[in-house]
């Protein structure tokens, strides 16, 4: 079997709002083969940049677009092709958008491998630790505490046992922050777990102060309170804060997660398959396991990422909960013809060959940006 084409398809809602919401557009990766098997992945990055990285022609042996490196190769050789992409982009890659573009292709290659072998991806990853994964409803803070509480109440009524809220306008004023948390906790009661995503709004000292202030709200974790480069700050906060600290969504390399674990000392590692790829994610999970740290996914995009995350979390012993974006946009809700369903706060790991989800051609056609 050989790869015949690699495409990045940019999908975009008609209106992009100025908010930290990555569900408003998506770069979907399609890998075609001469066996008639198509694999699907996605990249959570700047879509135009990642698409250019895929489409770029060869410049020399260490500067090449990813499509050029992959056409004619066997898509089932996922480890070798990861290394081929990494070495073929060495002068302009090694971090950031190039790795993220590689990750989206990597998901598509695992999808092809599973379809070719008639197996769900989690089995090919050596998994089967769980057939369902508990899910938390992941939300953005709304403009008011009351509107945010409505979102929290809806999650509770839908059967979720945990909920997270993040980003603006939270983090600027402690009194307003407490008003938000008071409203959320009042809406969900004492039994639901509540996570907080700060969106790297604070420094280390402010994080410790806020964690003490927020103690009455019984937070399950505080996510990304610091800038991702502030590893010394993370070390200080992780050592002194009683509330667990979660981070990792900006990391996309094994080396980056090594630093986050060994220097930052975080309590929960968050891996986004559409930025890391499944090939690397399995290594990251082992690194975390050897340090006694649980791994969870990061996801605020489409069901392709949700499916990849479920296969990852089913394949490692130190996973325990799935992030599920509950934004109402059609890309995250309706891209897949066979979407991942959440029932009683749990999602079943797909058993179909490959990743187990297929994009709806009508949705791709509706939102595809051709320019």
Give the structure's gist in a few sentences:
The protein has helices spanning 47-55, 66-70, 78-88, 96-117, 121-124, 145-157, 174-188, 204-213, 231-240, 254-264, 273-276, 278-290, 303-314, 330-334, 361-367, and strands at 3-12, 25-33, 38-43, 132-140, 162-166, 193-197, 219-223, 245-247, 268-271, 295-297, 322-325, 342-343, 346-348. It has 371 residues and is an alpha/beta fold.
Task: Kindly describe this structure.
The protein is of the alpha/beta class. The protein folds into 2 domains: 3-118, Enolase-like, domain 1 (2-Layer Sandwich); 124-361, TIM Barrel. The protein has helices spanning 47-55, 66-70, 78-88, 96-117, 121-124, 145-157, 174-188, 204-213, 231-240, 254-264, 273-276, 278-290, 303-314, 330-334, 361-367; strands at 3-12, 25-33, 38-43, 132-140, 162-166, 193-197, 219-223, 245-247, 268-271, 295-297, 322-325, 342-343, 346-348. The two termini are 32 Å apart.
Structural class: alpha/beta
The CATH superfamily of the largest domain bears the name Enolase-like C-terminal domain
The total count of helices amounts to 15
Uncertain stretches of 5 or more adjacent residues: none
Major sheet size, sense and barrel closure: 10 strands, mixed
Note the overall shape. globular
CATH class of the largest domain: Alpha Beta
Mean model confidence by pLDDT = 96
Helix content, binned percent: 40-55%
Distance between the termini: 32 Å
Range of strand content: 15-25%
Instruction: Write down the Rg.
Output: 20 Å
CATH architecture of the largest domain: Alpha-Beta Barrel
Q: Tell me the number of strands.
A: 13
The CATH topology of the largest domain turns out to be TIM Barrel
């Amino acid at each position: 079997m050989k790869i015949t084409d690699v495409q990045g398809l940019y999908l975009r809602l008609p209106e992009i709002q100025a908010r930290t919401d990555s569900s408003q557009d998506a770069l979907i990766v399609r890998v075609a083969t001469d066996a008639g098997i198509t694999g699907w992945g996605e990249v959570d990055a700047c879509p135009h940049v990642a698409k250019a990285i895929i489409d770029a022609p060869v410049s020399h042996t260490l500067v090449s677009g990813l499509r050029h490196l992959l056409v004619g190769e066997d898509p089932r050789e996922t480890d070798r092709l990861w290394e081929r992409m990494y070495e073929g982009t060495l002068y302009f890659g090694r971090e950031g958008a190039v790795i993220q573009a590689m990750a989206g292709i990597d998901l598509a290659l695992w999808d092809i491998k599973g379809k070719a072998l008639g197996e769900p991806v989690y089995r090919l990853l050596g998994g089967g630790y769980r057939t369902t994964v508990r899910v938390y409803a992941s939300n953005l803070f709304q403009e008011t505490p009351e509107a945010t509480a409505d979102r929290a109440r809806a999650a509770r009524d839908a059967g979720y046992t945990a909920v997270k809220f993040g980003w603006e306008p939270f983090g600027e004023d402690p009194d307003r922050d407490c008003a938000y948390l008071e409203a959320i906790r009042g809406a969900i009661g004492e039994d639901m777990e509540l996570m907080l995503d700060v969106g790297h709004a604070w420094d280390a000292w402010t994080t410790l102060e806020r964690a003490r202030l927020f103690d009455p709200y019984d937070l399950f974790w505080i996510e990304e309170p610091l800038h991702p480069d502030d590893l010394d700050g993370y070390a200080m906060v992780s050592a002194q804060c009683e509330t667990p600290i979660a981070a990792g969504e900006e990391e996309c390399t094994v080396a980056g997660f090594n630093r986050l674990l060994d220097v930052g000392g975080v309590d929960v590692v968050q891996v986004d398959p559409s930025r890391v790829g499944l090939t690397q994610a399995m290594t990251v999970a082992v690194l975390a396991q050897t340090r006694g740290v649980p791994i969870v996914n990061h996801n605020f995009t489409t069901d392709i990422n949700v499916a990849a995350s479920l296969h990852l979390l089913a394949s490692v012993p130190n996973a325990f909960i799935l992030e599920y974006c509950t934004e109402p946009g059609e890309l995250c809700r309706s891209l897949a013809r066979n979407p991942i369903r959440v029932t009683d706060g749990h999602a079943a790991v797909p058993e179909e060959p490959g990743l187990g989800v297929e994009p709806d051609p009508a949705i791709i056609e509706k939102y595809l940006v051709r320019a």
